[in-house]
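Action item from last week, closing it out:
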Amino acid sequence: IIMLGHMIKRAICNKWMVLACTVSIAIIYYEILLGWIPIRGMIKEPEYYNGLAQMVWLFSLCSYYTFAGMFPGLAYGSSLLEERNSGYLNYVKNRISLKKYMGYKVIAVGISGAVSTLIPYLSVAVPFSFFTRNSSVKFSKDFAELIWNRVITMWGEPAVYILRGLLMVLFGILWAELALLLSMVIRNKYIVYILPFVIYQILWIALPHAVSPIFMIGYDYDYNDSLIRPYLLFAIYIVGVVLAIWFLFRRQKKHEKI
């Protein structure tokens, strides 16, 4: 447990996490301040704008998604490779079993990925929620046709903030674990940093929107579409990547490559 806590601390308290969150927030707020979000009007006359609707549109169309695949693995995704190259892994072997170490590593990497996407999301969701509370305006006709309007009908507006935040968390976990998987087969950490972004761009083109882990974080489907689908698909993808990590770990351990 002490080792797990140490890993989690290293996973979220490092300069790469700061860089990932800072660049993500900068991209998002560039869209807010210089893009099509009417931020000045929202500040001067908040009663005439609905912050929840503006946030949904922002996270559906923001250019952050063009780069989002490279941020989750930046903080800790390549840590296994770095610990192997530095000799730190040999020190760890004398304290805990490799099996337990790898289990802790998967957990810590997942947490780091979740934090790297959750912090940028909260940087928008929290302030925009104040505009929602102060607004006398409900939703436009376009918003009324989205699945999130159904969520509001069933559970209220806070549920939209929570469920969209959960999509960001699952996205971060998936891409961080993918970076960990790549670090097990690639010996250059800079390639490990870049390759998830390349895979991200390929999947953007290759996969249909309905099953793409890229478009699911900007989930803005129609009112009657499945609400559970993006969460279920994220869970399947994450489990698939973690199983691949575990299979590769057992294979490398058997051949004494780790």
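Closing note: Residues 249 and 255 are 10 Å apart (CA to CA).
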